[in-house]
Design a protein that fits this description.
CATH architecture of the largest domain: 3-Layer(aba) Sandwich
Strand content: 5-15%
Structural class: alpha/beta
Strand order of the largest sheet: 1-7-6-5-4-2-3
Bound molecules: pyridoxal-5'-phosphate
Number of domains: 2
CATH class of the largest domain: Alpha Beta
Length: about 400
């Protein structure tokens, strides 16, 4: 797991201060004094780099944003109040009525309803595909397509995308690729694989202790020469590129989403998220190893486990080749029926029953009766939600303790 080593140094060094208070200051002020009218004018026209108002940016949050941007090799980042805030910011800043999204794989319940219900009400159409339907995806692209949206790991269907292949389709067609990398921070670096924007729910493994709701969108730099954001498809970007050059996706996100919709991060959550980042690169390899140990042991004992580390999984080869640094904390158990799933959840002593994932603790949830209870049968089938499906997020406990507890609960 040498892959995570470089981040161990980066995170602790960039979160802490070398002089004065070591822990980052929490600037909880909503507003900022400008001192003079000249400074005020400069702050508003962007020539003076000082905080304007916390909806548009906050010093504590700015620190988190710069660490997140560096983590993914982006030019900048915008932290948000939640993961859904990040997805809303990234998508709404690129969309107008009449536009289309192509959504691939997954899909997290909130993202599904954002695309299929909320954005639909504003005249935006989304086409949904499985990760392996590459030809159909290609054939669905029109001049109205503004976004290809992809989850790095299907939650909860555990299917893995060929991110490079999807990025090639997006880049050949000149369409923005947004990757939701919530489940695989550090393990997968979407910008390096050809994505334009990465979105995170930092609520999950990044903050890691179920203590801070938050999200973040990380943006790539606009290229000096040709760039998809310089084409007529993204015509409004011209003014942001003129004003901010390679940084243009940041003012685009702030002025076309954050300013008017207000999904801004708060300083306290940004601080707690940075504390999570300090240990992220230590927690991840531990959990990724435990997930494999638990998945294989339970599978050997005859439980119906879904995880791509198992040779029976259709994306096992992709897991070994493209996801050699793991695919996050999740696995699923199909208990066969709602009754059997409830019996398991009532008997497990280790798992905490909750909708969250990526915590230090092991978490579990019956899918059909909770997150997907509003969804019709056909949609559940598309998303892989069966009656007995339990989603597990493995924590930092001793993996043998988890195995023993789960085998007992499954009896
Ligand atoms: C949780 C989650 C979200 C939404 O994040 P919130 O912080 O709960 O708003 C989006 N995508 C994925 C993959 C998630 O797991």
């Amino acid at each position: 797991m040498t892959h995570f080593e470089e981040y161990c140094t980066k995170f602790v060094q960039s979160v802490g201060n070398k002089a004065g208070a070591i822990s980052p200051a929490i600037v909880s002020s909503a507003a900022f004094a400008y001192e003079t009218p000249e400074t005020a004018e400069g702050i508003f026209n962007g020539s003076v780099k000082k905080p304007l108002y916390s909806r548009m940016g906050n010093p504590t949050t700015a620190r988190l944003e710069s660490i997140m941007a560096e983590m993914d090799g982006g030019i900048g980042a915008v932290a948000t109040s939640s993961g859904m805030g990040a997805t809303t910011l990234a998508t709404m800043s690129l969309l107008a009525s009449g536009d289309e999204i192509i959504s691939i794989g997954g899909l997290f319940g909130g993202t599904y309803s954002l695309f299929n219900e909320t954005l639909q009400r504003f005249g935006i159409t989304t086409h949904f595909f499985d990760v392996d339907e590459l030809e159909a995806i290609q054939n669905t692209i029109t001049e109205k397509t503004k976004i290809l949206f992809l989850e790095s790991v299907g939650n909860p269907n555990m299917r893995l995308p060929d991110i490079k292949a999807v990025a090639k389709i997006a880049n050949d067609a000149g369409i923005a690729l947004i990757v939701d990398n919530t489940i695989t921070p550090l393990s997968i670096s979407p910008l390096k694989l050809g994505a334009d924007i990465v979105v995170y729910s930092t609520t999950k493994i990044i903050s890691g202790s179920s203590n801070a709701l938050g999200g973040c969108a990380v943006f790539r730099a606009i290229n000096e020469g040709d760039d998809k954001f310089k084409t007529p498809r993204y015509g409004w970007m011209t003014k942001f590129i003129k004003g901010a050059g390679k940084m243009a996706l940041i003012p685009n996100a702030k002025k076309r989403a954050l300013r008017d919709i207000g999904m801004s991060a708060n300083a306290q959550a940004s601080y707690q998220t940075m504390l999570g980042l300090e240990t992220l690169a230590l927690r991840l390899p531990r959990v990724i190893q435990s997930v494999e140990v638990v998945a294989k042991a339970l599978d050997d004992e005859g439980l119906n486990i879904n995880h791509p580390c198992l040779s029976k999984h259709p994306h096992h080869k992709r897991y070994q080749e493209d996801f050699s640094n793991g695919c996050g904390t999740l696995l699923t158990i199909d208990m066969g029926s709602k009754e059997a799933a409830y019996s398991f959840l009532n008997k497990t002593k280790i798992a905490t029953i909750t909708a969250n994932i990526g915590d230090t603790r092991t978490l579990a949830l019956h899918m059909a009766s909770t997150i997907y209870s509003d969804f019709d049968d056909q949609t559940r089938k598309f998303l892989g939600i069966t009656d007995g499906l339990i989603r597990i997020s493995i924590g930092l406990e001793n993996p043998q303790d988890i195995i023993d507890d789960f085998l007992e609960a499954a009896k």
